[in-house]
Amino acid sequence: MDTKIRGKAYVVGESIDTDQIIPAQYLVYSTSDPEERRFYGHYALAGLPVASQGLPDGGTPFVRGEEFTSDYQIIVAGPNFGCGSSREHAPLALAEAGATLVIAESYARIFFRNCVNGGYVIPAETRERLYDRVRTGDDLEVDLTANTVINHTTGDHYELPPIGDILPILEAGDVFEYAKKAGMMAS
Amino acid sequence: MGMTLTEQILARHAGRDRVSAGENIWVDVDILLTHDVCGPGTIGIFKDKFGADAKVWDKERVVIIPDHYIFTADAMARRNIDILREFVAEQGLPYYYDPGTSRYKGVCHVALPEEGHTRPGELLLGTDSHTCTHGAFGMFATGVGNTDAALAMGTGKTWLKVPETMRFEFHGALPPYLMAKDLILQVIGDIGFDGATYRAMEFVGPAVFDLNIEERMTLCNMAIEAGGKNGVVEPDQVTIDYVNERIARAGTHADYTPVYDTADGAYVFTKQYDVSTLDPVVAKPHRPDNRASVREVAGTKVDRVYIGSCTGGKITDFEAAARLLAGREVRVDTFIVPATTEVARELGRRKIGEHTLTEIFRNAGCRLGESSCAACLGGPVDTFGRLNEPLTCVSTTNRNFPGRMGHKDGQVYLASPMTAAATALTGVITDPRDQMS
């Protein structure tokens, strides 16, 4: 697991559900076939209404035009990110688009588990409301050991709470490696 | 201090005398449910992690019920079904309900109990967020992603954080214009759409035990809409009778041990409701907790009414709607989607007065669709009832986030089947009390 992540922020609001992260009609692509799997990156966050696409201004799609990956690596969000359906295609889509980290005020439980267990993106929590302080395109540097965020665009610093319970799984890589260590699965 | 229902079930499945909220534990899974949208991904991860020739941990305990994208010309959606068929044949799985055959069922959360796969005291994982529905049978049931499902498929195990329990007590007599949907929308409006995140929602009290099993399913079904890990209702004789009848009919395993409420568990939250004083409610766009009484939004013009899904597509839901629609005509496009083929058959048998429910809906001018999830989650563009334009829809389904039913600018009001039917009759949002004779 990379504990230092630097990249451009993509800022969204509250209650971004999995239908907005990956609309249901795209759940027909194979997640096993590498060529088809790329389409999940192409359609990542395609369900966001235009006004919600990249705050504060909106109108900035997460993935541009015909691209398969995003210009943004870090998603900044409000409460209850990933609510709604259990589709694992949601964190997979964000990861396929090139995102490595989400910083949200809170997560829906199944989405959070999927991020961690599948090893797609790291779901970091923030106690501060960042989605109205960070702008889409800001240059962020996150240190998951020191639990800090530096906004190089504005010079602001923010603190994050420690990652906690999920750290052993993040460090193992995914839930299968974690299960092997716990003796729940043959190595 | 005793344990809550949820803690009792989890302790048993962890092989321990007791567990407490906040602990991370490994538990044994009794049943793993998957469907056509998340099944192929689960199978892909299972083969990748356990080997191309790996066998599921117990073929009697993996239940596959295709339901999402069934009646579509979309070739890629149909391919999902082919992947399931191939896997079922290769693994020799007995509990598969194939589209296009007499075994086809439809919506997995209504089919699962119908086919004898829900039992008090058991632990169920499903690759669908509405798996929490099955807490209505006194079991621990929760939704998971493909990776968790693949691990369970190979090992019969999963890890869980033991949730804190919130207890919702319902007292009083339910008025004839209210349904379980109104109760759960009331709760979600009170605690917010993340008010139960990481928590169990336990529904208790005489007004809950007065509900039939389908209405208890509706209560538990929407626990996820408040962020809940699971919803649960203690089993009573109604539960046991339903479960035993279905097990006997389907020939599924009959050895189960219910857990019962000891009332001395640790609850992080308790709230009481007198159901006799509540009003019919809706969730306004675009959040399930955006509650308003029907009277507050009455008169809002709608383009469409949709009655269906795991939440609002059971026989109790259709009977309630039909009571309002009998002998009358709808004023807006009204879509009727029975959750399962069994519900569809029952619509053709059950009568109000001289007419079957099917006849009542047809005579009222409704459009009847085939059993599946259909437009609840949008789906392929040719899905029955899908919002392909920015329409306003009153729906008995469970979510109204932007785009959920197909169009990003669609306006979806979640409501009970009675409110939906009353609205269909007038073309504007209507309190069922105003249309009851």
Could you describe the largest sheet of chain A, including whether it forms a barrel? Answer: 7 strands, mixed
> Which structural class do you get from the secondary structure elements of chain A?
alpha/beta
CATH superfamily of the largest domain in chain B: Aconitase, domain 3
Largest interface: A-B, 45 and 55 residues
CATH topology of the largest domain in chain B: Aconitase, domain 3
Low-confidence stretches of chain B: none
**Highest-level CATH class of the largest domain in chain B:** Alpha Beta
Low-pLDDT regions of chain A: none
The Rg value of chain B, from CA coordinates, equals 21 Å
Terminal CA distance of chain B = 50 Å
The first-level CATH class of chain A is given as Alpha Beta
Strand order of the largest sheet of chain B: 17-14-13-18-19
Structural shape of chain A: globular
What is the count of DSSP helices of chain A, taking H or I runs of 4+ residues?
Answer: 6
Largest beta-sheet characterization of chain B:
5 strands, parallel
Report the strand count of chain B: 19
- CATH H-level homologous superfamily name of chain A: Aconitase, domain 4
Secondary-structure class of chain B: alpha/beta
Output the strand order for the largest sheet of chain A. 4-3-2-1-5-6-7
The percent range for strand residues of chain B is 15-25%
Q: Which sequence of SSEs, written as H and E, runs from N to C of chain A?
A: EHHEHEHEEEEHH
What are the key terms here?
heterodimer; A: about 190 residues; alpha/beta; Aconitase, domain 4; 7-stranded mixed sheet; 6 helices; about 25% helix; about 15% strand; globular; B: about 425 residues; Aconitase, domain 3; 2 domains; 5-stranded parallel sheet; 4-stranded parallel sheet; about 20% strand
Overview of the structural elements:
The complex is a heterodimer of chains A (187) and B (437). Chain A is of the alpha/beta class and 187 residues long. Chain A is 23% helix and 17% strand. A seven-stranded mixed β-sheet of chain A has the order 4-3-2-1-5-6-7. The longest helix of chain A has 9 residues, at 34-42. The model of chain A has no long low-confidence stretch (mean pLDDT 95). Chain B has 437 residues and is of the alpha/beta class. Chain B folds into two domains: 5-271, 2-Layer Sandwich (Aconitase, domain 3), CATH 3.30.499; 283-431, Aconitase, domain 3. Helix content of chain B is 32%, strand content 18%. Chain B contains 15 helices and 19 strands. In chain B, helix 2 links the parallel strand 2 (31-34) and strand 3 (62-64). The longest helix of chain B has 17 residues, at 75-91. The model of chain B has no long low-confidence stretch (mean pLDDT 97). The chains are: A alpha/beta (187), B alpha/beta (437).
